[in-house]
Structure formats: C-alpha cells, structure tokens
Design a protein that fits this description.
Layout lengths: L1 E5 L2 H23 L2 E5 L5 H8 L9 E5 L1 E3 L9 H10 L19 H11 L6 E5 L23 E5 L6 E5 L8 E6 L5 H8 L17 E5 L11
Parallel strand pairs: 1-9, 2-3, 2-5, 5-8, 8-9
Antiparallel strand pairs: 4-7, 6-7
The chain binds 6-phosphogluconic acid (6PG).
C-alpha cells in the first residue's frame, strides 16, 4: 500500500498527474503501448487537464473507461465528455485510440458485451476515484459486480445518479495497476474503510485496491490511523 497525502486539491492533481504520466511512460517503455482506464466523477478533471500538458507518447496510449453513465456522449453527466474536455481535446490524442462505452444505448447488456470485446488483453493502468460509500467505477457495495469473475463489463443500477451505468468489473481489471484518488472530508470514512478497515469488498469495493497507490488530500486522509 502506498498513500501519498497532498496538502491541497491542487497538489493532489499535480501529484496524481505526475504519477499517472510516469506510470504510462514506464509501461510504454516496457511493452510498447499502455492501456489506461479512466473513471468519471469530479476528481479526475484537474488531473487530466494537467496530464494533457505532459509530453507523453500519445500514439502509444489506448484510453478506455472504468465506467460510464447511461447518457448520451455529449451529456453533462457523461464520463466520456468529461475526459474529452479535460484531456482528449487538449492533447494530441488520436481519436482511434479512445474507446468509449456506449452509455446512450437502450440495450445496455449488449452495449456492455460489445465493450468487453474491445478491451485489451490487460488493462495496464486505471485512474479510479472512490465514492463516499466506498464504491469505485460503478462497482457499488452489495452489487453483484463486486465479485464478478467472468463478465468484464456489466450494466448496473446504482445509488449514485444517474442510476444506470456500464462498468468494468474486477474481472476486467486483473493485473491492472490502480492509481486511487480521493479529495475532501466526505471521503475520509470511505478511505479509512478501504485502507484500514476489516469489512469485505462486498461492503467496501475500493478495498480491492488497498495494496495499490493512493493519492489523497489531507481532508480525505483525516481518519487514517497511519497518517494521524
Ligand atoms: C462515476 C465514477 C465514480 C467516481 C466516484 C467519485 O462515474 O461516477 O466513476 O466511481 O469515481 O463516485 O466521484 P467524485 O470524484 O465526483 O467524488
């Protein structure tokens, strides 16, 4: 487990962008390309805007999504739109290297299956946020997606609006290195439960990423014994 506590939200975005950039560059050196899954929500925006300024090997990076809300790609709640505005429109990212989930499709299960067929053999990296209930991507507490070992992508209904979503499952993230990010006091309990609690992943799905790298701000770290 590695937890970096940033003093401010800006410092969090700086650190997370630096780390993500380094991890991508390392993977491209190692295997010639890097497959990255991006989460949605509000935390990634400042990170991706900074990443867009990095001199990355843009033609060697394939961009996927950890989850998507079941809305059209230009909707304000669309994770694709968020990533497009923060990164793809600001850096020389070839459009053919962006693999978005078709959240707008009414046939959600088929959309999930179709996306599964687009996934790489291994998703090298994932930028993941954590919800106040301990969810990551759209893998919510008590959801069958938490223990899904076969289907890499599922259509799920969750408590966070908009309710219907497409999400990668743990089956799609085997061998993935996660960079977990969390900002604000609202996340403090979830971060503690994920990093130091003894509840199972079915209750705190982000616990699955306990052994990975975390970048959190002081408020989100405020309940961590290891930091106090
Ligand atoms: C989503 C996200 C979700 C997010 C967390 C944290 O599509 O909603 O993928 O898992 O990362 O809910 O959201 P915030 O960054 O907005 O706090």
């Amino acid at each position: 487990m590695s937890v970096h506590v940033a003093q401010t939200a800006e410092a969090l975005a700086e650190r997370a962008a630096d780390r993500l950039g380094s991890l991508i560059a390392e993977e491209v050196t190692r295997s010639g390309m890097c497959a990255v899954a991006l989460c949605g929500g509000t935390t990634p925006g400042p990170i991706l805007r900074r990443l867009a300024q990095a001199g990355l090997p843009w033609t060697r990076i394939r961009w996927y999504f950890a989850d998507e809300r079941c809305v059209p790609p230009d909707d304000k709640d669309s994770n694709y739109r968020g990533a497009r505005e923060a990164l793809f429109d600001r850096a020389p990212v070839p459009a053919e290297l962006v693999f978005r989930m078709e959240g707008e499709r009414p046939d959600r299960d088929n959309a999930a299956g179709d996306y599964a067929r687009k996934l790489p053999e291994r998703m090298h990296l994932a930028l993941l946020g954590i919800g106040e209930d301990g969810h990551f991507a759209s893998v919510f507490p008590g959801s069958p997606a938490v223990e899904e070992a076969v289907r890499p992508v599922m259509a799920v209904q969750g408590p966070k609006p908009p309710p219907w979503r497409l999400t990668l499952t743990p089956a799609a993230l085997r061998g993935t290195r996660a960079l977990m990010v969390a900002a604000g006091a609202g996340k403090a309990a979830a971060v503690r439960r994920a990093l130091e609690g003894d509840e199972p992943p079915s209750a705190v799905p982000s616990r699955l990423w306990r052994a990975h790298e975390w970048v959190v701000d002081r408020a989100a770290a405020s309940e961590l014994k290891a930091v106090k």
